[in-house]
Design a protein that fits this description.
Layout lengths: L1 E5 L4 H13 L4 E3 L11 H13 L5 E6 L3 H7 L7 E3 L3 H9 L5 E5 L5 H13 L6 H10 L4
Parallel strand pairs: 1-2, 1-3, 3-5, 4-5
Helix pairs in contact: 1-5, 2-3, 4-5
Length: 145
């Protein structure tokens, strides 16, 4: 399951993400804004996505706000979450392949259908390479408070 959420600044990106997920028959749950005039605080939406991601090993999350940085910072406060702000498809691919990121963060103010589709394609089509040294590093990261 893919858990997605955004605030009002991420609404345009959320609509692009929903269209992408639906067209690719990927199950998702939007736990953030659902209408353009609606708003939700990052403090509300980030924990909802994180809880969903942590509930199952095959779950992932996508968060968006104006810059994408706020949701990235907030999500990375949770043990077991590896959130990445991806501004292009190469970073999206590397975040999954090398860093096993389980939450993709996007900038809502830069939402562009073509570019967002390329980022999502790269992120969903890439698998973690399973590097043992980096996996151990992530385990250590998760012990930090």
């Amino acid at each position: 399951m893919i858990y997605i959420a955004g605030d009002k600044h991420g609404f345009k990106a959320i609509k692009i993400i929903e269209d992408y997920l639906e067209s690719n028959h990927i199950a998702y749950m939007n736990v953030g804004v659902k209408e353009e005039r609606e708003d939700a605080s990052l403090e509300e939406i980030i924990p909802k996505v994180v809880r969903g991601v942590l509930a199952g090993k095959d779950n992932f999350g996508i968060l968006t706000c104006g810059t994408g940085i706020g949701v990235e910072i907030g999500a990375n406060k949770f043990s077991g979450i590896r959130a990445c702000l991806a501004c292009d498809e190469e970073i999206a691919e590397w975040s999954k392949k090398y860093d096993n990121c389980n939450v993709l963060c996007l900038a809502g103010w830069r939402a562009n259908r073509g570019k967002t589709k390329k980022i999502l394609d790269a992120w969903f089509l890439t698998k973690y390479d399973g590097d043992a040294k980096r996996s151990k590093m992530f385990e250590i990261f998760d012990t930090w408070h």
